[in-house]
Amino acid sequence: MTAVLRRGGLGLVAWLAGIVFFLPIAWMALTSFHSEADAATNPPSFTASLTLDGYREFFGTGGGASPWPALVNSAVASVASTLLVLVLALPAAYALSIRPVKKWTDVLFFFLSTKMLPAVAGLLPIYLFARNAGMLDNVWLLVVLYTSMNLPIAVWMMQSFLAEVPVAVIEAARVDGARLPTVLTRVVAPIALPGIAATALICFIFSWNELLFARVLTGVVAETAPVFLTGFITSQGLFLAKVCAASLVISLPVLAAGFAAQDKLVQGLSLGAVK
Amino acid sequence: MTATTTAPLAATDERTVGQPSARLRAWATRAPLLPALAFMIVVTQLPFVATLVISFFDWNALYPKARRFTGLDNYRQVLTDADLRHSVWTTVLLTAGVVLASLVLGLALALLLDRRFRGRGIVRTLLIAPFLVVPVAAALLWKHVLYNPEYGLLNGLLHYVGGPQPDWVSRTPLLAVEASLVWQWTPFMMLILLAGLQSRDQQQIEAARVDGASDWQIFRHLTLPHLRRYLELGALLGSIYIVQNFDAVFTITSGGLGTANLPYTVYQSFYQAHENGLASAAGVLVVIGSIVIATFALRVVSSLFREEVSRA
Fold first, then answer.
1. Per the UniProt record, which residue ranges are transmembrane (chain B) (predicted)?
2. Surface-to-core class of residue A42, CB atoms within 10 Å of its CB (0-12 exposed, 13-18 middle, 19+ buried)
């Protein structure tokens, strides 16, 4: 009896914790559907009528800058760098797992060690280079930098996913005369597809979220969604609904990608060390 | 001369009969690795070398003609500057505070979620959500929607119980930044620890239970030792990301009120003060600090890794 009660009680505690952690997001969602006047009240109003004004304001139909160019830039930077990461990481992971090069663990750790080099350590030379090369405010520069940011994680993740591909299958294809690109695309990729998809999602999320490089290296043309959001840092209560609408819309791709990859997410974020 | 010309010839001969030389084969194995390696070296190592070089120059971008070599002067200045030393301390407090708090909370939540109860999948999804909000958006949410003294949710809820109405960000600025980061990173710790809990040997636990071990004894002597590696991994990965945090500091306080950590300080000293040399020296110091964490980190990750290889 007490065991049943305790189990039920702990389930209740878990529910409570889940609600507490989710409350800020739920409140943000509710506020985004309030009028600005209703959003900025104390005590908070739970019953105010709902409106799409915050979203209209955000998308620029109610005046103000349109977020579309920033959203498009973020999409271009994230998708392009994710594709580039896959193109570079897949062969590398192949060399590290299926046909291991000598000292392959050392190479793997080199990749990881670059992840521990803080972004600020190279920011200034990259800025100076971009300025002299006329590449400031250019979304393709972000593509290159985001690729370097995600490549180590991708190599680690894919190394652990590819290690699960049976070697016999690959040997058979090689005996049949298949060359490396064919082996990768026809044999390895299909088997490791779920892992590759998870890797891609995680790279996409990190690129979409990135602020520091985008803030320093872009301006008007190549501004990304997080940089667009920084425009709200000093905004006062008058724009609360708009801030909430903006934050939610810009978080939506990450929330969707993250929920879709829940299980692989943890394995990926812990570099494949946790299964 | 003859030797060098015959060697490749011999290799070609061998290849024509279908036996590539060992050296060729070694390069064939290495080749797929080279594009990724070359890319990483060019994009991450070269800029760092450049930062290292710039750190030895007195160079303000507003006065480019006055640029000159000063040796270790920038480092001396960085280490004696009270603001910079403060930002080192802030970085330590921020990283240690957030990592420890989110680990403890994450462990508690993972233990709760490891049990079967109605709606476990929904609760898990609710708990993961904070980690999936874009960091700038999460920081804006805390700054405007939760912390605001006049219309923020925190004071709104306090209003119902007749509590005080503090201005959170100006009263406890560092704690305000930390709380928002703990909220974002607890789900990450929970996910790693949950994976750890679910990889426990159930038979061993059953056996202990049959032998009359209490829940606490099982936790203390079986679960916790098993979780040690997962706790370490969570702490290290969390540290790598939080030591570099820029978004929360930039958004919530803009580095004001003593919350400027090293990444923010480096950003500020070159982006706003245009002090290229000083910024680079500070950047190099961040790297040295990271290397200290990284050496420890790599050891832990590699021990995890070795364990897995030996299992395979």
1. 33-57, 88-113, 125-145, 174-197, 230-257, 277-301
2. middle
B279: chain A residues, CB-CB within 8 Å: 124
Q: How far apart are CA A61 and CA A84, in angstroms?
A: 35
Task: Give the residue from A186, A203, A183 showing the smallest Cα distance to A195.
Answer: A203
Give the global pTM: 0.87
A227: Cα separation from own chain's centroid: 15
CATH of B54-311, one of 1.10.3720.10, 1.10.357.20, 2.60.120.10, 1.10.3470.10: 1.10.3720.10
Using a CB cutoff of 8 Å and minimum separation of 24, what contacts does B268-275 make? B270/A123, B270/A124, B270/A127, B270/B61, B271/A216, B273/B60, B274/B60, B274/B61, B274/B62, B275/B59, B275/B60, B275/B61
Chain B CB contacts of A245 below 8 Å: none
Domain ranges in chain B are 54-311
Closest Cβ opposite residue B43 in set A120, A145, A230: A145
Give ∠ CA A178-A180-A183 in degrees, rounded to 5.
60
Q: What is the DSSP secondary structure assignment for residue A99, as one 8-state letter? A: S
Determine the 3-state secondary structure of A65 from DSSP.
Answer: coil
CA–CA distance, A16 with B259 (Å, rounded to integer): 32
Least confident of A122-131, A243-252, A259-268, B54-63: A259-268
At position B101, the amino acid (one-letter code) is A
> Do A109 and B298 make contact, defined as CB atoms within 8 angstroms?
yes
Distance from C-alpha of B78 to C-alpha of A254, rounded to nearest angstrom: 38
The interface predicted TM-score of the complex, written ipTM, equals: 0.89
Contacts of B127 in chain A (CB under 8 A): 17-18, 21-22
- Say if CB B103 and CB B238 are below 8 A apart: yes
Type of residue at A244: C
B31 — pLDDT class (breaks 50, 70, 90) = confident
